[in-house]
Specification:
The protein has 315 residues and is an alpha+beta fold. Helices cover 15% and strands 28% of the residues. The chain has five helices and 18 strands. A five-stranded mixed sheet has the order 7-6-5-16-10. It is elongated and about 120 Å long. 28% of the residues are buried.
Length: 315
């Protein structure tokens, strides 16, 4: 008997298996799923009325050796302390919260690991010998922001030194339309400065922004409840909610913002049509006044001219 692709003939028993596909970066959630102890039962029954055979196979793998959202305790505290030492934005409180997950994801982005926010074996191993990112614009200002589109992270420099590393989500690159106008969701590269700020939530045509700091037309750094591992915004730089407050407070108007590895294109909807000109009003023509009345007389020695409303006197 010849087994079909994806099946192996073992002792008269056909055992099926699947090939795993490669995804960009991979995830450690797969390790979580594979780590469970599984008992696989496969039964074959012959057509004979007198013979029945049953085969049972047990597959055992090592349990998942890592930390994930919902965990708590000393191991989580140690993970958070290590991330904080490396300038990732996390509060060492011993609880694997969404903020810790975002800090782990930022670490994974910088170190080229799967972006799932789970501190699995590969992530924990890399924490012992991590990548140390250097400044991309060392002379860009003592307080500045460097947004790396390729790695989807934000580097905040304060006093000339790296202060925090934050996971972000930038323009998705997809086409979108609003009120009959269409554009591509992109975060353009270049050198900019913070030009305006709005405290609290701001609701616009493209959704809700928390404490936006605008730096390129209608593109801002703002807090968002959804900051996935890859690009997903309309063009803004989304930051996790646990980082949004201090980033907003630290970004004063005029702070340099450098967007690296982004396309040099206009911001979405930056080509908005100019407002219509004001209506044309014909100019007001002043009424024509009659010339003043003048009477002149002369003598051999004196000439005097006087204009009066009703009386003319000659001398």
């Amino acid at each position: 008997m010849k087994a079909s692709p994806g099946r192996v003939l073992v002792g008269g028993i056909v055992v099926a298996f699947a090939f795993g596909g490669c995804s960009s970066g991979g995830t450690e959630r797969a390790a979580v799923r594979k780590s469970n102890v599984r008992k696989v039962h496969r039964t074959t029954t012959s057509s004979s009325s007198t013979t029945t055979s049953t085969s049972s196979t047990t597959v055992t793998t090592a349990p998942f050796d890592g930390l994930r959202p919902g965990d708590s305790g000393p191991e989580v505290s140690a993970l958070q302390q290590r991330l904080a030492e490396l300038h990732y934005d996390v509060s060492p409180d011993g609880n694997y919260s969404s903020g810790t997950m975002q800090a782990v994801m930022a670490f994974q982005k910088v170190n080229g690991l799967g972006r799932d926010g789970v501190a699995g074996p590969m992530t924990r191993l890399k924490l012992a010998s991590p990548v140390t990112p250097g400044p991309s614009v060392p002379s860009g200002g003592s307080t500045r922001v460097e947004v790396d589109i390729a790695r989807q992270v934000l580097f905040f420099y304060k006093g000339g030194s790296l202060f925090r590393i934050v996971s972000v989500s930038t323009g998705s690159g997809e086409r979108f339309c609003v009120n009959g106008r269409c554009a591509t969701a992109v975060t353009p590269g270049g050198s900019f400065r913070v030009s305006g700020k709005v405290g609290g939530w701001q609701t616009g045509e493209l959704g809700k922004l928390y404490k936006p700091s605008y730096f390129n037309g209608n593109i801002a750094i703002h807090g968002a409840t959804s900051v996935p591992g890859g690009p997903a915004s309309h063009g803004c730089v989304r930051v996790p909610m646990n980082s949004a407050d201090w980033i907003y407070a630290s970004l004063s108007v005029g702070t340099p913002v450098y967007v690296l590895n982004g396309p040099r294109v206009p911001a979405p909807f930056s080509d908005a049509p100019p407002p219509p000109p004001p209506p044309t009003v014909p100019p007001t023509v002043p009424p024509t006044l009659p010339p003043p009345t003048a009477t002149t007389s002369s003598t051999s020695t004196t000439t005097t001219t006087s204009t009066m409303p009703s009386t003319t006197t000659n001398t």
